[in-house]
Amino acid sequence: MVSPLLQVSRLTTRLGGEGQPVRVVDGVDLEIRKGETFALLGESGCGKSMLALSLMRLLPPSGRIVGGSVRLGDTDLLALPEGAMRRVRGGRMAMIFQEPQTSLNPVLTVGQQIAEAVRLHDGTTRRQVRERVQGLLQAVGIPEPARRVDEYPHQLSGGMKQRVMIAMALAGDPELLIADEPTTALDVTIQAQVLRLLKGLQRETGMAVLLITHDLGVVAETADRLAVMYAGQIVETATSAGFFADPAHPYSRRLMDSLPSPEKRAGRLAVIPGRVPPLDRPFTGCRFADRCHRVMDRCREIEPGWHQPSASQGVRCLLWAEGRPESDVPATGAAAGLVRIAAEPSRQPLVLRVDGLQVHFPIHRGVFRRVVGQVRAVDGIDLELYAGRTLALVGESGCGKTTAGKGLLQLIRPTAGVVRYGGVDLAGLKGRALRRQRKDLQIIFQDPFASMNPRMLVGDIVGEGLQALGLEPNRARRRARVAELLGQVGMSAEAADRYPHEFSGGQRQRICIARALAVEPRVIVCDEPTSALDVSVQAQILNLLKRLQDELGLAYLFITHNISVVSYLAHEVAVMYLGRIVERGTVDEVLDDPKHPYTRALLSAVPVVDKDKRREIIRLEGDMPSPSSPPEGCHFHPRCPEGIAECRQAYPPPTRLSETRSVRCLRVSA
Amino acid sequence: MAARTASAALVILGVGSLVFLLIHLVPGDPVEAMLGEGARAADREVLRAALGLDRPLAEQYLGYLARTASLDLGQSFAYQRPVADLLAERIPATLELALAALTLALLLALPLGVLAARHRGGALDTGAMGFSLLGAAIPNFWLGPVLILVFSLWLGWTPVSGREGAASLVLPAVTLGTGLAAVLARMVRSSVLEVLAEDYIRTARAKGLRESSLLWGHALRNAWLPVLTLIGLQLGGLLAGAVITETVFAWPGVGSLLIEAIQARDYPVVQACVLLISLTYVLVNALTDLVCAWADPRVRG
Questions:
Q1: What's the first-to-final CA gap in chain A, in angstroms?
Q2: What parts of chain A have a pLDDT lower than 70?
Q3: Are A524 and A552 in contact (CB under 8 A)?
Q4: Crossing angle of helices A188-205/A158-170, nearest 10°?
Q5: pLDDT of residue A456
Q6: Chain A neighbors of B297, CB-CB under 8 A
């Protein structure tokens, strides 16, 4: 066997003081071979990033490596003096991070930041530095590198910034690139670009990549081998193909089962109850035991050792102690087969109808703050919401989907258009009349951490709507109602007397849902309610939303960029691009047979776990243009792989394909 | 820019009017101050009429506004000289002291703040912040005399007061500068600490940069921006005349002129000084905003 490029053994890292150290990495063994992509998979808080930072010896000040060894080739990294380690960092071993928005220094030009890395590791002369920087920008596919070198990070899009980060990492010709959630903050089409770029660079330079991610789809599409991390330990290692064919650890199994997909839509998603245990105390037995659906008595007593289901797979689970265990019971009720619903148009009553909704933001400039243009965030969209049904509004960041949701609720006043609800046009209402309607229209926000006042008790947060709208002025009855609401979202009534920070992300989102439900709304706008949550928690929230819809007949406008969530939860889909809806129809129509080239590209870019379902990725060039100056004609034509000359002339009218379906593309005919 | 100029003009008008009214409302009479208590009533009336103080307040106010608008600051009652001349004599002294104090403050505060942030929680941090607390807590009217006692009277290194040569600048500059440095150092420290926690600092570390180039090249360039605003505010205060320090050291600046004028009920001089002070604040603040915008590429756009 070839000697590995990186060999980690018994690595243990602690955070925090002597009093109660947190063992964020606890005896990890890993091997990464030359040129391979090795994925480290796990939920947030399980120690992935801390492991990566330990390898680079870049831990925060309170972090300390207390044991184990890290060898890169023949070098023992933990024994290197700091000066020599600095030459390794950014040299033989480079790292890129999750948030390209904040990972570049805002006051230095892109060129200056890359040049720094070049000068440190390349030994080039001053004159050659600029050339080399431009060469690197070229290598990561940034157009017009000669101009871009002198730009500042804020002048670049998110995807471009991540490319700059990669260029910086490449400066020292690394043997190993550690990529910590490199595409999590990016849109899927941009994610596809960046992942393809990494693959290409790997082929050219022969570097290995340690890819840290929570996204099973990304792992399935890019990794050669992988390790699953849980509570500071590795619980399973396998080849990518072997893992996805047959995950051995119950945790791995459940992670896969909790992914939403069309097959699971008739039933409930598998959930992993509870949360990752705190790592500040010693464990006896298996760390996953408390959340495991196949837990046995001895799991709580014996710490499981490594077992080998196959030559290339290792698992830390007692189930495998006596060879292959009986196969897992299917976790979802829908495993019996594909259940197709929602193919027919809705027979539910129409609750809300949006016609020609426009939200424009004026751009002011100059001494007198003259209006010099308009950002056409939402530029004429039509929507219908039916009781008990979910309409998914899908699109990439900046397409206007959140603004559309807020415009619908009159949280931002629309520039034009009609929002008809219960016989009135909400867009024309003001003051008290509008406030009366607020009861029926609620919203759940993306970030459950930021959308609650941290100084208010949960009970007051949930009950505020009841009080503000005068629905329940009696204090005692309001308390009882809040307790009932908390029960409805699966929380105990005691939560009412606590503050938001005492709860996890998933619990907070439940509280936000209870708050929205308090005033007995008929329509709820869900603005990316699960995108800040881990998959297992996402599954809990999606299950909850689905159950509430069935019980209460709620109409949801579900705003998201996550296609797999759409396939699980939605009945109808509308795809947005640059302020307009380019394609709409039922879930089956749009997801199974996308017609608009943009929808096709968007769907093809979504990483898929199941190999058989993968589509050829349709490459989209560049970024979405600015909504302040949309391209002439069809907004999508400059990036469209199927564009023709006529596309430039006028925005295509909708083509009706069925009772429920329409597409705005010249290439699609009825 | 037009909006800024208008709001600045409004501020200055407001301050000018307020001072005019206040100074006429407080008890005290310039005529009495000029002629002394033994003067005859008739003489007082003549002088009062000559100075225009016998007319109704509204009329005096309008006259004051009109003169100020035509850049005429009037005559000093006490000195019998144009106020503009008096100011022209005093401004260079104040400017000199302000710049010396600010330079000293920056030289102390920047290294102190950065090193304290770098060695957060260590002995250096504790020491620097202890000094800073002390510097902020010790009032200038105490520090000034103590410095005079030690360096002028015991050691005889510097003049006791006045403005004669570079040596006389040392003590007032130290008195003013250490106080400023104390506040600035804290600000630099917290700003650098904040920046050091940013993602791009981690990126720079991952590149293999030394701690020193990280600190001075990456962190300080960002930490600078909030500090600049504070420096602007402090400079405004310094230029407005460090009243106490100038008095303690008998430094012939705008601050001590203002004190003298208030004691003598020398209305035109008081009004002119206050006008100058508010104008300086407005100008320095506008300048600070420009510098901040220039230093931050995101604002520069």
A1: 59
A2: 1-2, 123-124, 327-346, 366-368
A3: no
A4: 10
A5: 92
A6: 106-107, 109, 152, 154
Coil, strand or helix at A263:
helix
**Cβ <8 Å between A368 and B202:** no
What span, in angstroms and rounded, lies between the C-alpha atoms of A565 and A555?
17
Query: CA A370, CA A331: separation in Å to the nearest integer?
Result: 60
Rounded Cα distance, A208 and A210, in Å: 7
- The residue type of A327 is S
> What is the DSSP secondary structure assignment for residue A265, as one 8-state letter?
T
Burial of B128 per CB tally in 10 Å (0-12, 13-18, 19+): buried
Residues of A in contact with B199 (CB under 8 A): 97, 99, 102-103
- How far does CA A226 lie from the centroid of its chain? 20
pLDDT digits (tens, 9 = 90+) for A137-187: 988 888 888 888 999 998 888 888 999 999 999 988 899 999 998 888 888
Alpha carbon A396 to chain centroid distance? 12
- Closest chain A residue to B197, measured at CA: A60
Return d(Cα A285, Cα A295) in angstroms, integer: 11
- Asked if A47 and A25 count as a contact pair (C-beta separation under 8 A), the reply is yes
Tokens of B21: 């009214």
Please tell me which residue of chain A has the smallest CA distance to B213: A116
Task: Give which of B167, B172, B173, B225 is closest to B195, Cα–Cα.
Answer: B225
| Sole residue written with tokens 């008008």 | B13
Choose the mutation target among A85, A105, A120, A161 for the interface with B, i.e. most B CBs under 10 Å: A105
Give the separation between CA A371 and CA A213, rounded to whole angstroms: 44
Please give the full DSSP string across B158-187, using - where no structure is assigned: S-SSS--TTHHHHHHHHHHHHHHHHHHHHH
* Number of other CB atoms surrounding residue B135 within 10 Å: 23
Structure tokens at A181: 């959630």
Tokens of A466: 């009841």
ipTM field: 0.79
Spell out the residues 6+ positions from residue B202 whose beta carbon is closer than 8 angstroms to its own.
A58, A97, A103
List the strands of the sheet with A350-365, edge to edge.
A370-386, A350-365, A416-421, A424-425
pTM score of the predicted model: 0.82
Distance of CA A382 to the CA centre of its chain: 27
To the nearest 10°, the Cα dihedral for A492, A496, A501, A507? 30
Amino acid code (one letter) for B186: R
CA distances from A58 to A117, A649, B10, B259, B283 (A): 17, 54, 53, 58, 45
pLDDT digits (tens, 9 = 90+) for A67-96: 999 999 989 999 999 999 999 998 999 999
Instruction: Give the position of tokens 């700003």.
Output: B191
